[in-house]
Amino acid sequence: MRALTIRPLLAAVAALLAAAGPAAAATEVRALLLDQRFTPTASPRSTPLATQRVALRGETVALQLAIRPDVATVIRPRVESATPWLAATSILRVGFVAIRRPSTGTGAAPGLYPDPLPPLAPGAGLSLDARRYGGLVLLVSVPADAEPGDHVATVVLDDGSASPPSVPLAIRVSALTATPRTDPASFSVLVLDNTEQYRTVTPVRGEGAERGRQTLAQVDAILRFLGERGVVPLRNGWATPARDGSYPSFTTPGAWWKDAAGNLARAMAIPQPARAFPVVGDGFSLGSASPAAASRFLSRAAAHWRANGYLDGRATYAFTWDEPGRAVEQRRLPAINRAVHASAPGVKTLATLWPQARVPRKRICRTFGNRTCQLSRGSDYSNQQLLDGGADDVDAPVILNHRFYGTWTSKLERQNGIDHTYDTRRLVERARSRGKEIWTYTYTIGRRGLPQLAIDAPATDVSTLLWWNALERTDGFLHWGFARFLAPRKGATRPRNPYDDPLSWTNGSLVSNGEASLIYPARSARYGLDDPTAAPVSSLRLERMRLGVESANLVRAARASLGDAAVQRELGRIFGRVRTVPGAGYTWPRYSRRAADYELVRRALIEAMESAAA
What we know:
Structural class: alpha/beta
Distance between the termini: 78 Å
Radius of gyration: 27 Å
Helix content: 25-40%
């Protein structure tokens, strides 16, 4: 009897559905902060923090849209707003790379990870697969003269339907103005140069003069693209001086590669927060040159820079040595520093090292039970002669981030009042008190408690590194590459296309996807890109670094406005107690991996500065 009752009801429902026609396809849209991550199969929930923003004038607002349609579709996104700069929002598609060997210490699994951000031309469509997430990154450049107050927009995802999905966006612009990323007062990021590796994977066309024109346009595009993000390469291969430090000038169309003077002038015309002074010439290297050759090279290069206005007060750095050993620190590096200071006044020397000082070993004993005694850990080495204010000093020591604080302390040492947690940091503060700039750099050591620049590292890791530099009041950050487009093995020379293979570095058991590889080629059949002279394709990590530079500048401004104590309290929402990193032996602070924490601290600092200025 029950079956007879239900069947007519089911038939009636089926008839109604048939009369109504097929159900309208639904599209799910989730608004995310840039420090969040979605994959084709999973996405965090939308957060209001992504679409209700607060920004200084001159800052960048960035957000992601993770889009999942029920059926395969093509959307054509646009931003509608009465505010011109909002309507001009840059829209990038989110690309994915296939990671087969996860980066060491990330806890990641193999799979597709978002990273490349190919441009999406106005009116162009984004193809989306059914029931899989694709997405967009929106970059809003708030002008330095933007009207303070509330500005609104609607992001329309036009799928051809009568009622396409849309996302509201609201930005409250502060009356305060940010330090421009290209300003000499800005926090800077220096990178070792990989332009030639980029050019190998992104070759230009043509021959002779046309090839030269395209090559120079390509190099200009790279420098401008990086400069807009506060990033400066430490060398421009086409602006390399001669062996004696002079800059040859050639106007012959076929000799573009010889025109070091003209190529340098082109590079200097691109706005950048800092400048890199040459330490390498054609057949010359400062690291191996005789004192006379070093003096000649530096003097002539400095004379050319001074005559052309390149030494204009903007911070200019000579990268004198990368990770010197003890013998180099004691002899060769001091001589090089003296030569730079004598022959190129105003140029600052920069070297990757960490401050060390002699620490006597002490006899320590257990205070109860078996009163075993041993010597505490100490050091018989010092490089303080490089940081004591002399002409042979390194002006800007660049300290490896995981060596910045100190090392582990044994239980017996603690029982005897010895603590190594801040051994190095105390020397850092001593160097700072002597007028040294403090910079940091990083490379992966594959430990979960230290942030990395890997594609598959936690999505907040890039921001953590830049915010940590702000926490420690550093002057800049250095990374050992931006386009390492080589096979991952150390010493490899075979080219690697990062779209196809994101594995950029292996060293023994260490593996990294994206280490020293922060951009993508401007040519890609997958994304319909075919202009090698166009700007490189950005990455999520590089855009996070751009925002991190702005955050470092914000923290500097907040310290000037609110005082160090107030700023440190706010940063305490991101960073915790310094402790020994498990498996590393080094000490570093605990830190948040919640994207919302970084955004909330930004807002709190801006609001506190506004209150102080009122």
